[in-house]
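Throughout our pipeline, every protein is held as a single compact record rather than as scattered files. The remainder of this section carries one protein's record, kept here as part of the documentation.

===
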Amino acid sequence: MSALPNKALQLTPNSWPRPGPGGILAAAAQAQRWRSALFGAAERRSVGRHDRMQFLTREASAEWCATNGFDVDRGSPKQPSGPSEKFEIPSDAGRRVALARLLWESVAGSAPRALLWVTEFGVWPSGEHRPLAESARAAWGAPGALAAYPGQLVAVGEHDDGLSGLVLATLFLWDCWLLPAGGSRAAFVSHDEFGIASFREEPERTAFSRKLEWFRG
């Protein structure tokens, strides 16, 4: 495994909190330093972009869809009518990360704005760790918990954070929509371990399908 580029993140057994001078207070201080190392960069970035990064309630997410080309039925977006490709979500965690990246690049990579909307979570509680997601969302500027603000509006310059949210949803098998503004492309990952990607034109679907072959092998 290659060394981490950020030395602040290179946590070793020697840096674990342990009894000694300062006792519990020293251990708590060390834990806070760990949190700063892990989330500090994201927290610093979020301060400067708070006017752009937005988290939406379920109602606000539906309103955004209505004004950006997506139909919503019973609290969930509807798949666009263009060419679509259904796929299975792999069981391997590394492949799930790679799949999330492929979805983002194929569906929303060129979009100036996209909505990441988690419509259901907690179906497989043993396969998720929600505090991890909540910590990441807080670092990105979320004003409340996932249940209250399930929509994440991603602008230009925020794609890494948007992709991170999609990675978490794919890993944890949450129902999640990736909806770039315009209404002609979309992706959905389901807790039932499948997904659907829709495109504006057939050549886009074909190119995506070819890239999926690696996951089917």
